[in-house]
From TrEMBL:
<dbReference type="GO" id="GO:0042984">
    <property type="term" value="P:regulation of amyloid precursor protein biosynthetic process"/>
</dbReference>
<dbReference type="GO" id="GO:0000137">
    <property type="term" value="C:Golgi cis cisterna"/>
</dbReference>
<protein>
    <submittedName>
        <fullName>N-terminal EF-hand calcium binding protein 3</fullName>
    </submittedName>
</protein>
<dbReference type="InterPro" id="IPR039862">
    <property type="entry name" value="NECAB1/2/3"/>
</dbReference>
<dbReference type="InterPro" id="IPR011992">
    <property type="entry name" value="EF-hand-dom_pair"/>
</dbReference>
<dbReference type="GO" id="GO:0005783">
    <property type="term" value="C:endoplasmic reticulum"/>
</dbReference>
Amino acid sequence: MHSVVKDTFYDGKLSFEEFKAYFADGILTTDELHYFSQHLGEYLDVLSALEKLNVAVLKAMDKTKEEYQGSSVLGQFVTRFMLRETSSQLLSLQMSLQCAMEAVEVQSSTTPSFIFIRVQFLLAEGCSPVSAFI
């Protein structure tokens, strides 16, 4: 999974210029973009951790690509297990994030019928009742 914001320098870091270029749709002014970038709060740590996770996963997959065929049967089993477990953990995290995003959308709506429909959808999607009302 890749970020929608393009890392034009391919250095694994997002510069303020790259950030501005992504949001250069005229909705936010340069001052608003600067304010936004300075108020990431807890998400700054989250984005930093995701960057490190991305690098670590790609490094592990590169090593897997190089060594898998020459590994023992047990080594190949462990590799397959670790890939499945990593994928499962990431999918679980993605589902939690999706539920939180949907719940925030519900909160930002002022239409009662929309809120009812979205809460029903969240519950049907497996989101906890608590996340439906974040």
